[in-house]
Amino acid sequence: MAKKLTLIALLVGLVVVCIYASVTVRRGFSTRDSPSTVEAFVAQRTRDMAIPAKARRMNNPVSASPEVYADARAHFADHCAQCHANNGGGDTPIGRNLYPKPPDMRLAQTQNMSDGELYYTIQYGIRMSGMPAFGEPVDNDQDTWKLVTFIRHLPKLSEQEETEMQHLNPKTPDEIQEEKDEENFLKGDANSATPATTMHHH
């Protein structure tokens, strides 16, 4: 009986792989597309199987507090928001072009995960996705637990908190250059003179 069940499972797996291959060949490999139903199912099952049962049962040792939220907001804005957005919705230039795209962490797909599942996902990442491993390679990283606490808070994130996070987001090269140009202009750098001023000296 066990051999028969194993054979059936293998056949089902083979059918899934064949369907996936067929869909992929027709649709191509562009990351701009949304995952098919089969791909979404496979990705979900892969993530579920990648998290050990022991990790699922882990309890968050960090309690919610203004200090914890402040630390986690700064960490999230600096390390996570480029893909997930400050509000956790995932609507960013990088997030929109990942495959699969980041989930909206305010919704049930993420909020229904256990604290241990969230911790393990952040700490160790998910293979074959855009989610890398963050945090120190230790069993009980407090910064990661703070992020778990903050993720629970995302559905209630206020406009004031989101605005505060915008000031903590990493600056792009263009923004850095713009700040340098403004600073040079305010210092009276000759290189920042306007064309009109330069022509006047001539």
Automatic annotation (TrEMBL):
Where do the segments described as Disordered lie?
Answer: 158-202
Record carries keyword Metal-binding: yes
Q: Which InterPro entries match?
A: Cyt_c-like_dom, Cyt_c-like_dom_sf
Pfam assignment, any one: Cytochrome_CBB3
Q: Where is the Cytochrome c domain?
A: 67-155
Q: Which UniProt keywords apply?
A: Heme, Iron, Metal-binding, Plasmid
Gene3D superfamilies assigned:
Cytochrome c-like domain
Per UniProt, the ranges with Polar residues bias are 191-202
Protein name (Swiss-Prot/TrEMBL): Cytochrome c
Give the organism, scientific name. Answer: Tunturiibacter gelidiferens
A molecular-function term among this protein's GO annotations: heme binding
